[in-house]
Amino acid sequence: MLRPLRILLPFVAIGAALLVFLSLAFVAFSFTGGGGPSGPLTLGGCDAGLSGSPFASRMNPADLTPEQRQNAGVIVSTARGLGAPPRAWVIALATAMQESNLRHVPYGDRDSEGLFQQRPSQGWGTSVEITDPVHATTSFIQRLLAVPGWDTMALTDAAQIVQRSAFPDAYRKWEGLATELVTQLGQVPDPVRCAGPVTVAGVAQSAINFALAAVGKPYVWGATGPDTYDCSGLMLRAFQKAGVNLPRVSREQFNAGGHLPAKQAQPGDLLFLATDPSDPTTIHHVMLYMGNDKIVEAPYTGASVRVQPAPWANRELVPLATRPGTPSNWASSAAGQ
Question: Is residue 285 annotated as a catalytic residue, yes or no?
Answer without folding.
Answer: yes
